[in-house]
Fold these 4 entries.
Entry 1:
Amino acid sequence: MAHCTNRNRDRNRLRFGPKGLVIAGLLGLFSSIASAAWEISLQNPVTATARHVYELHSLLLWVIVVIFIGVFAVVTWSIIFHRKSRGHEAADFHDNTTVEIVWTIVPTLILIAIAFPATSTLVQMRDTSQPELTIKATGYQWKWGYEYVTGDAAGVKYMSVLSTPREQIENKSPKGENYLLEVDHPLVVPVGKKVRMLLTASDVIHTWSVPAFAVKADAVPGFLRDTWFRAEKEGTYRGQCSELCGKDHGFMPVVVEVVSAEKYADWVADRKKEMAAAAEDPAKVWKLDEQVARGEKVYAATCAACHQPSGKGLPPVFPALDGSKIVKGPKAAHLDIVLKGKPGTAMAAFGAQLSDTDIAAVVAYERNAWTNKLGEVIQPAEVKALRGK
Amino acid sequence: MQATQAAGHAGHHDDASHGHGPTGLMRWVTTTNHKDIGTMYLWFSFVMFLVGGAMSLIIRAELLSPGLQYVSPEFYNQMLTLHALIMVFGAIMPAFVGFANWMIPLMIGAPDMAFARMNNWSFWLLPPAAILLTASLFVPGGAAGTGWTLYPPLSVQMGMGMDMAIFAVHILGMSSIMGSINIVTTILNMRAPGMSLMKMPMFCWTWLVTAFLLIASMPILAGAVTMLLTDRHFGTSFFNAAGGGDPVLFQHIFWFFGHPEVYIIALPAFGVVSHVIPAFSRKHLFGYTSMVYAIAAIGLISFFVWAHHMYVTGIPLTGQLYFMYATMLIAIPTGVKVFNWVTTMWRGSLSFETPMLFALGFLVLFTIGGLTGLVLAMTAVDIQLQDTYYVVAHFHYVMVAGALFSAYAGLYFWLPKWTGHMYNEGLGKLHFWLSMIFFNIAFFPQHFLGLAGMPRRIPDYAQQFADFNLMSSIGSFGFGFSQLLVLVVVFQAIRGGARAEARPWDGARGLEWTVPSPAPHHTFEDPPVFDPAEAHA
């Protein structure tokens, strides 16, 4: 609220005259007391769009506060002076065409006046043309996948998952500073560059949102949407999924790290090296122990949210894997459901998310964990053979 | 609240009509009397209000502090879904249908509703729907955890609780449509001689428009949930991109129903307030004609603004601009109504009994909700605030403070007519002040939470949101438990208390005040002569 007297809005402020200034003083006093411990307005804007939204909101706040005070000053006057207990006699009037025309036209004019900044802000917000960097974000239940589409980092892709430990959520250990707003791998973008985000989802609708950028857009499965931002200041900015997407909707934050051009170049180089190192020999022949150990990690990161670490699931929406017919049945059918998902249920297709090696490992883990002691090893080549079938 | 009480005081007035028909439980099952049915609607809605309220307290208990304490995230989602469905379809809508049943025939001088037996049927559809909704908590997988908006594909993932919710919505829709046809027919055909449409009480006008909105919008909701049902079970792909459908299509259909629904709830509330404020200002309602036009305009425009609930779904810029301008347009007739109420009070002779207090509470809080609605109408600001607690605060100011406060104003206003006794004024005022204070403690801080970026429908939150959430939870517990006072007040008034005169409020006008209190079981068997002095304007 302290930021609301902005250069662009001076003409609007002038309209309120001395009364407005008194209110400004009172509100300023209130906000300085209040902001000591309590955040009461929009987050500090870091993009031009967010700044315009902030100003538009401040302008509207003024308009509605003035209207509210105006209307209820009249009501208060009536309540104090036109009471029956003071012996006030009721006047007898019930129509006045002039008054009614005035209070239809004046609000119309106010609305037209605020429609101008509202329109220009929106037009600017939707202009995704000429981006300097394009990144695709995919919403999964319950994490974000990022893929750099253009620029030096083209081809870099990774998952971004909540990194707050389970013990903090369950109140077994003290909560960290960025409780629920921290991820293992944030999105990294260079400062001052126009970044276009392409959004989609693999299962249900998610919403990618960063309040400091005034960016919020739905990720709709089967469709591509876009939005953009140009961050003006280096730093880490945090948001959350903003469309109810199932049980862990509250646990899939968005974290964006805005860095200098040099740091960004370093990050891209590191990331590419890491990806090269992580690329495994798809022809490697796995043994049971090492495969199950790897599969357990994949399971914990990808499957446990629904099917639970115990393999008992949360039936009937998330069925148990322990003793499941599919898990204990033929290998090919089991691999197939992991690769392609099961339409009409919460089971997503993991073919695009996980490598052949990971899918082989996690399926092998499921077939050997809990009471499913099948003793089978699955080679990545078997997964590869099933893809595209 | 109970017309049966009339029998207990039969000595005081002529009440010859109780001797026939079934008694005991069967009387209520088979009744076609508009007063009995109105009473049942009101009790039903109060029971559902307590059930939905209990669910909101589970939600607020979980949100008392960061971390997961009492419920699992999936159960939390089920609570927020059922809380909304029960409050909207089980509590608020039936409450105003109850008012309509009791008061419309009395206000227009009709002996009963036009289709008395259909009236019985439209009430008795409600309990099965309520049972389907609440019982869905106990089936495998629990109730729908999608939010009341039931967006696919999430709603396609749900268990059979979702199907139960779909059938409940179907049944509730049938009930609403039948009730609406009844109200339209009654108002258009059964007014006392001399009562032209433009002399009709404002409550009847608001319900006439509301009934048309219901008839137009409920089939659309029924269509949307039926498509959901066939997507879930019969292999259709209305909302599945893989099959050529579009998840966003559901949102368009849902909100084409959903936005008029907001006014279906708000308009009868406007009607009640338009009776209470003039009565306690001892003046005529200011600007009756402009009020009628404003109601009709709001009803009409409500069908053309649905996508303002969908600004972040990726609708094109031109669409966003159109919906922004159309939404801003609604502020004009709404403003006219507020100005009319304010001017009605101006230079009146005001007194502040409980109904007036609730009407004033309505006026203040509904205006706040309307003004934050203006903020949200700006697409760019809405994108920043969509699905945050700012929206939660906004619609609770409109729904709770708008509809519930107005329903209380109506309850206290007409309770003497229903029971034949004056209620306990002290307790009524206490109920008002507790509600007013705790409501604001519960919901005002949510504006700040939303501005700071806290998303709605999350069971756990980051630490910077902790203080306001604690405040909000304390407020909601206070608000919730204050509502039990109503039960005390109503039971006291049913059992006894000062006898109410036919016209217990000296400023009240209308035919309903020309019959004795409590209103006899049958009224206006012969059409009354409409005295223009009783007209609203």
Entry 2:
Amino acid sequence: MKPVIKKMLGSSFIGALASPLSVDDYLGLIDRRLSVREPRGRVVSAVRQTADSVTLKIEPNDNWQGHHAGQHLLLGVDLAGVRHSRCYSVASAANEPLIEITVKRNGNGRVSNFLVDQAARGQLVYLSHAEGDFCPDTRPPAKALLLSAGSGITPVMGVLRHWAAGGDLTDVVFVHYARSRADMIYAQEIEDLAARHEGLRIVCVFTAEGGARIDDATLDANVPDLAEREVWLCGPSGFMDAAESLIAARTREPIHREQFAASRREAAHGEGAVQFLKSGLAASGDDGSLLEIAENAGLKPAYGCRMGICHACKCRVAEGTVRDLRNNRVREVRDTDIQLCIHAAAGDVAIEL
Amino acid sequence: MGRPTHLTDADVAEFGRELDTIRDEVMSDLGERDARYIHSVLRTQRSSEVAGRALLMAGILPPAWLAGTALLSLSKILENMEIGHNVMHGQWDWMNDPALDSGTYEWDNTCPSSQWKHSHNYVHHTFTNIVDLDRDLGYTLLRMSEDQPWEPRFIVQPGIAMVLAAWFQWGVALHDLEWERIGKDKTWSEVGSQASLIWAKVRKQLLKDYILFPALAGPMAPFVLTGNYSANLTRNIWTFLIIFCGHFTDEVEMFDEAEATNETRGQWYLRQLLGSSNLTGSVPFHILSGHLSYQIEHHLFPDMPSHRYRDIAPRVQAICERYGINYNTGPLTRQFGGVVKRILRMSLPHRRKHNTLTEQSTVHTPVYAEAA
């Protein structure tokens, strides 16, 4: 959008004409990607490098403010009428015009399966601004170790491409764990990078072909000078926990771990415990509806009919297992608004109250 | 008063379960086709608004003024009825779309959404048709039930009703002030904070329709102004018509507080059903009415996406036949005729009339054991 038009559309005069709707509501008549403030994009290409992954290149609108190497964003897609959002690392270098992400099939996960199977050119996606501080400095340290497993290669790819573009691959060791080369995303590009840059040493461990899971022996054999290397770590949480304890025992250099900002928060432990995130309170989930539990804990949530009709008590649940008191159905919810008066805790529940 | 006396407690419980089943089936089936429906309504509303306002800019030509006003009226009616009212009921919250979120949606009339959600979603839908609790019974301006005591001011209520119809969005905007409670259990400062919210909304609406768009039209300003006013008037009258047909037709039942206390789910469904009436018509008619032509289904399931009421109405009607419950429906002319008669009848002090329902009803089992 031309800057002058953008400025005009964001003005309070135009806002007053559109009121109480937003200018975006009218822009949507032309193209849903257009927005005055919201970053959105369309898929330009979808390449399936491996059997259960897809690499998407997304053209963002001009509300996308760019990213630093290793950052991630929250990507939203409309599936069967419902908007779902998931975090993905940005694998493209900071100065590239298109955003590249790679999605790996995550069990029965709705969004990952949809993207891997059906994402195609033209797909509208909702974006967030880039978040995370996986790699806060633009230049690498003198000696670096990048350690990843499975889809954890994506932020590492972003960092590697950034360092390569800056001519900074002086002494970087990259150790990656995958099932096999056929399952390794970016395998070819990594090999090309290593061929072109002397300072980059690649070690791939293929666990389906006899390679062992991460342990002392592998680390010592492949990275003897670990004590001098700053470490970047990304992969499934089990992998990261195991790796981090091994590494921390060997080096006092900083260890960067990729944590998605919108990832699972610490849910209260114990049977059916209810946690109120904004007030820092916790209560047992045994007795009554979530509304009653909140009131007994001293909170004053909004309410109305107290019978599931008026939606006044709707509240955001960050994560939890709830039972609908009307039909006794139990379901797991994540980042969802639910009516407190007709739901009870069926496990741990974390509420934004 | 209201309840059918031929049903046992077990009957009512089973009746409730059958309705619960319908609700569960529909709510677990929501998906792509529902999303496509609401998006097409949004597109229609927005493009007709843009086209209407653009045509009014050439409003010196009568065809342009008429077409522009008609399109703008259409967009306001769609936005208030099919979109705004339904979005605020939470009917489209399942989509996770911030533009259709009942928590944040602001609709295109002078009434602040937060106050509407209180007076409508909570008060009206919880205390439906309970005299003295449901403030929609006459909106404190009209006497709509024999159980409301007569006062001399009601003699002129036919005139009041006409004024209310022409200015309906203002009646709605002021409705949640609950002026009858001021000095009793409502303080002036509560009124003050509500009033500033109302003024903030009113200001934006007046600015848009009566200052900014006319100003944008330059020499055509008078035509834009009259066009916008006429569109607002058209929307007011249409919404008044549809809404008054929902609970004030001939056979609708009112309830007193005692019989509505400690209701079971089945009894709640029964009160919602007996207190509401439907309108028959074409699909475009239903959409224009925001599917409030399915007032019965809407009161049974306020947070079900509105277009689904069309699908479930035959099933609800069949259940009513089996249980011998009156399912009140009819064309707009007949139903509104009943509303007019009620307004006229209630304007005079009135003793309970003979129950003529058993003569009029098409249901074989008498709905009431004795005169209401």
Entry 3:
Amino acid sequence: MTNNPIASAMASASQGMNAQAFRLRIVSENLSNTDTHGYHRKQVSFKNEFDGASGETRLSIGDVSLDQKLGDRLFDPSHPLADGQGFVLMSNVDMMVELADAREASRSYEANLTTFSQARKMYNGLLDLIRR
Amino acid sequence: MEVSGIGGGLGANLGALRQYKTAQKALAPENNADKKISSAQSSGGASGVGKAAEAFSAVFENVENTMQAHATGQADAHSVVEAMANAELALETAVTIRNRVVEAYQELLRMPV
């Protein structure tokens, strides 16, 4: 099946869907930790990887890194995590950024899904030629 | 008959590992039939058909392996869908080609001698 371009199209679409699903998972983790004090949002990176066996360039999920930007400092002296001056460090999650990222992941997922079903349709069209 | 056998087997596989076992039993005669076909064809001189049948059953083995890996949490759902789509296309190809062969044979039978 390695030389079948339709099969490799479906394989790369499947990897794309997997990567976008992972990205959505990270976004969801960030969103759920919006109110965690001192939380740094996670960032996903994707990378290309050449697979010598099949001669294809495959998508793979790179390292997950932490956004080092400091979160907002909230003045709340009664808080148990407050520092000497009465400030509490909040998470650096921006909900707008996370929701935009989630929307982007969802759209990319849809694009890969469309590629997948398009490849299937193309192959079925090819088979229809034999069916007469 | 082939289509409903494997199609039902694939549907049952989605449930759980227990259902997977029954589906494996349902798939087993299908694989044996392929091997019979391949040995019959290769003895008749067409070894290419035998290779094709082997590749065909390898696709279904891939589905079984992927589903088992998914059930044990080692593979993601996307690879299961991909393997099943591959198997579906392979099955459709095989059925279409078989239909053409049978059709050609029947045409030969109808030929006035």
Entry 4:
Amino acid sequence: MADAPRPADEVLADTLREERGRLTAALVRILGDWDLAEELVQDAAVAALEHWPSEGVPRNPGAWLMTAARRRAIDRLRRHARYRERIRLLTAEVTQMDPGVATGGPMDADDRLRLLFTCCHPALNREAQVALTLKTIGGLETAAIGRAFLVPETTIAQRLVRAKRKIRDAAIPYRVPDLAELPARLAEVLTVLYLIFNEGYLASSGETAERRDLARDAEWLASLVARLMPDEPEVLGLLALMRLHLARAEARFANGDLVLLPDQDRRRWDHAAIRDAVALLRRAERMGRVGTYQLQAAILAEHATADSWAETRWDRIVALYDLLRRVEPTPVVRLNRALAVAELDGPTAALAELEPLAERLGGWHLYHAARADLLRRVGRAEEAVAADGRALELTDNPAERRLLQQRLAAGGVSPGAAPRGRRNGPRAG
Amino acid sequence: MKYLMLIAGDEAAWEAQTDAERTASYARVVAWWRAQTDAGRIVSGHELQPSSTATTVRLDRDGRATVVDGPFVEAKEMLGGYAVLDVPDLDAAIALASSWPEPDTLEVRPIVTDG
């Protein structure tokens, strides 16, 4: 970092990402006004763009921004006598806290955590929670959020306005929930982060490069929460889960085509990242409070540390699914368990477990795609083609559609004719 | 912060209860209501007669009134009571609503105070 000086706007972008949530949180706490806080952060960023290119990037850019924002806040508030108490707070904090600001003392850690719990308050709808979290904690611009979700910027702006209005008018508090509420409220936060992650991870098709990588944003947010709440095993579990997914991201596409787990070139996985994520997961598990994210991460860790699809410890994976099914008794978990059973006890056993799920999962393309694969393996080719056809009708994702179309073109005769065989060539990865 | 808490429930299920069950449930609600009032969290409020007693008056732009038998909307869950709350914030209002002793649905909404 010290050798080649980086352009000021690049440093600014990085710094803003790291500091925006921190600045906004501190200012919301002091001012009690969300919009004003964001405006001040924006003003401070503009001031930085004016000064830094000529005067050089300050040694502590976060502290510089915080000071600039506070000074502007004081200027603005001086016009109104009723803000005297807030001005006093601002002045006191400018002189007392500045040296430590960007190193993240416990006080401003609390600020961001409070703000995050407000963003993910259950009284806000899911879309608002997602937009608020990305904007205020993640430091994304409204336009960037719009691009990521393929939604017009004005729609995101509307959601933010409405959410902030509800926070103000319904008096949604700005605090970390107490111990009794914490499990449910933290689960809500983690749901929002995982939703952002999945939006990025599942939607990425390897060809929409201009679309922002929300999966990386979500991973950054989860790592922030893990830093702020290091004793919550589910937070660490979610972070490990995201990192295990991201460690395999490179191998998910070959020439723009989706490559499924059995066919991925495991040499392209980031094995150092996998080791770190597994270590993180083990740390979470030692805390002795199991939960859905730790279990999902444990399943993924089994896959990520196996030398090949065939050498995967399917007995352990089925056992982990049995635990997960108790924590989260959903048909999707049962479907995934059935797929592990297919490897342990064969496709016939798995098909039997799949049939009762038809009613609840019949509208989901992955149910039909999974069923098609199993049918092909037991030689029921015609039914397999029908199931793949149904899956194709139900998905818009271009990479998934291509994969299904290839399968259908192969006629569903044998596992060898499916894309799985074709993708295994030495240069495919 | 003042909120209006609307309490809605399944009237048919209420009707289907035995007298003993109804008495027990009234006792729970009365005890709860008294505790919240004593703590200053409930400012005022009332139970309402069943929705079969409701009358809806709808006014058009010219001020002409149409009077119709029944509540605003016909639904499975009908408004059965309300309370005006005085609590610090939405979390406190949600906590209060969450402690309501019957299997009902509650809506909490801030009241517009001063202009």
